[in-house]
Structures are given as structure tokens and as C-alpha cells.
């Protein structure tokens, strides 16, 4: 295994780690209580943006594990 492939796998682990971290935002930052002070629209935007970040980080992480050679060659 070459160094570039190891780096791609590390990027995948990092991305999945960020996704897991974002999954715990509600509990870590007490969003149930803190977001009550926001308007309904802003509350929804914050939560939906966080969900989209989770999806994106998971997508990138999975891509790094499924297509490491293709990512290195592009």
C-alpha cells in the first residue's frame, strides 16, 4: 500500500469522524434548549444544514474507502 492510498483512507476516517461528531451536536450543544430562542425558520435551517453536513461527510468517507485508486489518479 502506497502513501497516497493511506492518505485517502485517513481522509475517509476523518470524514466519517466528522459525521459522527455532527450527529452528537444536538446533545453536545443542548440544541433542544438553545434553539428554542430562534425563530422556526432559523431553527430549521440550522438543523437541516447540520443534517446535510452529516450526509456529505458520510458520502466523502464512503467514497474514500470504495474508490481510493480513482481518487488518487484524478
User: What pattern of helices and strands is seen along the backbone?
Assistant: HHHHH
Radius of gyration: 16 Å
Q: What's the overall average pLDDT, rounded? A: 96
Shape: elongated
Q: Pairing-aware structural class of the strands and helices?
A: mainly alpha
Amino- and carboxy-terminal Cα gap: 18 Å
Poorly predicted runs of 5 or more residues: none
Summarize the amount of helix as a percent range. over 70%
Total DSSP helices? 5
The fraction of residues assigned to DSSP E strands is under 5%
Give the beta-strand count: 0
How is the biggest beta sheet arranged?
none
Please provide a written account of the structure:
With 74 residues, the protein is mainly alpha-helical. The chain contains 5 helices and no strands. It has helices spanning 3-23, 25-28, 31-34, 40-66, 68-73. The two termini are 18 Å apart. The model has no long low-confidence stretch (mean pLDDT 96).
Task: Summarize the structure in short.
The chain has helices at 3-23, 25-28, 31-34, 40-66, 68-73.
SSE order and pairing:
Blueprint: H1 3-23, H2 25-28, H3 31-34, H4 40-66, H5 68-73
Helix pairs in contact: 1-4
Characteristics:
mainly alpha
